[in-house]
Write a structure and sequence with these properties.
This protein is of the alpha+beta class. The protein has a single domain (11-179), classed as Gcn5-related N-acetyltransferase (GNAT) (Aminopeptidase, 3-Layer(aba) Sandwich). The protein is 37% helix and 26% strand. A hairpin with a 2-residue loop joins β2 and β3. The radius of gyration is 16 Å and the shape is globular. The N and C termini lie far apart (50 Å). Bound molecules: coenzyme A. The site of coenzyme A has 19 residues, from β4, α4, β5 and α5.
């Protein structure tokens, strides 16, 4: 991945030039590098290329100039619950709406899969609140604790906040607003 990717800082121009789409096998090196760079910084859990390849159908990428500049995955726990996982945007394009677009695209995918509830564990609470999520108690998501938290090296001093979004409740509220 080149370090010299130039993407305009203007949100409008940035939106036009950054494409959001389902991941394909050619995106694997870019996704792996992006996620693991953020893991090195302590922002995400590391993911192996093999683990990403095995779950590729659950990943979305943001691309610019043919390179992966953002990614996110949808991890299904049950038919009713999925996690927004491994959300990352390359430093050069942060603050231009790419992260928000990735989360909204993932919300659309979760709706398509009829998954009603999304959650995330994050330090970017304000970012998620702006996407419609609300802060929730982690104890509401024992599935996450069982899968990841018990293996996490910083579980005793976790500073992440759980955020949740009920997709169809939001849809119902929006429909109600439209009818007023
Ligand atoms: C979080 C992240 C994906 C946001 O991507 P982005 O493309 O910059 O997001 P957008 O441009 O859509 O939104 C930017 C807004 O989110 C806010 N935001 C970004 N990171 C934040 C953080 N760690 N905490 C709180 N708010 C944050 C910005 O302050 C900005 O708000 P503003 O418009 O009021 O200034 C990106 O900062 C990132 O990759 N961070 C490192 C990995 C990470 O923490 N992932 C989340 C783990 S669940």
């Amino acid at each position: 991945m080149s370090a010299a990717l130039v993407v305009p800082r203007s949100p409008a121009l940035g939106e036009a030039m950054v494409d959001i789409r389902p991941a394909v096998p050619g995106d694997l090196p870019g996704i792996t590098a992006l996620v693991n760079e953020q893991a090195r910084r302590g922002n995400l859990l590391p993911r192996s290329a093999q683990a990403i390849a095995n779950s590729l159908a659950d990943w979305l990428v943001a691309t610019a100039g043919g390179e992966v500049v953002g990614c996110v995955s949808l991890l299904r726990y049950t038919s009713g619950l999925a996690e927004v996982r491994s959300l990352a945007v390359r430093d050069e394009v942060q603050g231009q709406g790419v992260g928000g677009r990735l989360v909204r695209a993932l919300m659309a995918e979760a709706r398509r899969r009829r998954t009603p509830t999304l959650f995330a564990l994050t330090r970017a609470v304000r970012f998620f609140e702006r996407c419609g999520f609300r802060v929730a108690d982690k104890s509401l998501f024992p599935e996450k604790v069982w899968l990841d938290c018990r293996r996490c090296p910083v579980r005793q001093r976790c500073d992440e906040t759980t955020v949740v979004l009920h997709l169809f409740r939001e849809e119902a509220t929006n429909d109600a607003k439209k009818l007023r």
